[in-house]
Write a structure and sequence with these properties.
The complex is a heterodimer of chains A (189) and B (154). Chain A is an alpha/beta fold. Chain A is built from 7 helices and 6 strands; from the N terminus they run H-E-E-E-H-E-H-H-E-H-H-E-H. Chain A has a 4-stranded mixed sheet, covered by helices on one side. In chain A, helix 5 packs across helix 6. The longest helix of chain A has 13 residues. Chain B is globular and about 45 Å long. In chain B, 69% of the residues lie in helices and 0% in strands. Chain B has 7 helices and no strands. Chain B is mainly α and 154 residues long. In chain B, helix 5 crosses helix 7 and helix 6 crosses helix 7. The termini of chain B are far apart. The chains are: A alpha/beta (189), B mainly alpha (154).
């Protein structure tokens, strides 16, 4: 006997209202396809491309808390800001970002990355210098590759030394689309 | 050493268990009351979730919560003025009395005995908890009881 949809929804809402959900997530539509977006009490803690579920939520459970539940309401402001961003009406996100539970080097790279402004690009080498590890460009690349909050923590704005797009965990097509949306010029051309 | 099974994200646990728990509560309490009991079961599970230290026996765990709620609901429904015997002193519930007695039984037999005689669950529901058939649940309970008899006659 399956649980009626309405009861399922009410349980999820009650769980959120009771403050028992540490990480809430939902799927969000975007021009780049479905995004799985998760928020904690501290802020936005996850965005991944596609609607595949088990892997992202297992990763969130290991990193933050096993009390991960799909629920629409906590994700509303993230949904709204992302949609404004994709419509070209927003250049900066007001949502706080929660990078807790990540290794400290990765956090320092991502903290620095947030300063690369909308519509501009930087390189792995420049980012390595800015985190005080000028010889660690490869490690910086690794940290970006595992960025849990792409788009909002803009790893798409980091390109290779010659301006080539190089890698992107979400695929180069998506990186190109984000840079085009931001009018970041012919990177990768 | 056996690898510890980690606690799954609550969402996956909930999806795995919600239909079986709901079906059990509908049988035990009727459709209307089952909905509230269902919410209460999973809210309690969510509240207790951070205290789990491994992901084993989660079905038995959530059925323990659900059957406790169903039991409370049955008690609540007893007409006023006819308190069940000994209710005033709130005797130790049957499942609590059984726990130390059944210590040392193989896990499946122990669960079957406690769920049958402590929670008064039907074999069909016990089968659902144990992930086995009604018949296998009946056999587990009876071989558990045989083992206990043997033990007490020693």
């Amino acid at each position: 006997m399956s649980v009626p949809a309405d009861l399922d929804r009410r349980f999820r809402e009650a769980a959120v209202a009771a403050g028992l959900v540490d990480v809430a997530y939902d799927l969000v539509d975007s021009p780049l396809g479905a995004l799985l977006v998760a928020v904690s009490e501290r802020g936005l803690c996850w965005i991944s491309f596609g609607s595949e579920e088990p892997e992202p939520i297992e990763s969130l459970a290991r990193r933050l808390s096993a009390r991960v539940l799909r629920a629409a309401r906590p994700v509303e402001s993230a949904r709204r800001e992302l949609s404004e961003y994709f419509e070209g009406r927003r250049q900066e996100f007001d949502l706080p970002v929660d990078l807790s539970g990540l290794p400290s080097f990765q956090r320092s790279v991502l903290d620095e990355l947030v300063r690369v402004p909308y519509g501009e690009v930087s390189t792995y080498g420049q980012l390595a210098v800015r985190v005080g590890k000028p010889r660690a460009a490869r490690a910086v690349g690794g940290a970006l590759n595992r960025n849990p909050v792409p788009i909002v923590v803009p790893c798409h704005r980091i390109v290779g030394a010659g301006g080539s797009l190089v890698g992107y965990a979400g695929g180069l097509e998506r990186k190109r689309a984000l840079l085009e949306l931001e009018g970041a010029g012919p990177a990768g051309a | 050493m056996m690898e510890t099974m980690s606690v799954p994200p609550f969402e996956l646990f909930y999806r795995d268990q919600r239909d079986a728990v709901f079906a059990y509560l509908v049988r035990a309490l009727g459709r209307d009351v089952a909905e509230d009991a269902f919410q209460e079961t999973f809210l309690r599970a969510l509240r207790a979730y951070p205290r789990l230290d491994h992901g084993r026996h989660l079905r038995a765990w959530v059925f323990t919560i659900a059957s406790r709620i169903a039991l409370d609901e049955h008690r609540r429904r007893q007409p006023a003025g006819e308190p069940p015997e000994g209710a005033a002193v709130d005797p130790e519930p049957a499942y609590a009395e059984l726990a130390p007695l059944t210590d040392g039984l193989p896990p499946t037999e122990r669960a079957a005995v406690v769920l049958r005689y402590g929670y008064d669950l039907a074999y069909e529901d016990i089968g659902a908890v144990l992930g086995s058939s009604e018949e296998a649940a009946r056999q587990a309970a009876s071989s558990g009881v045989r083992r206990l008899r043997k033990r007490s006659s020693r």
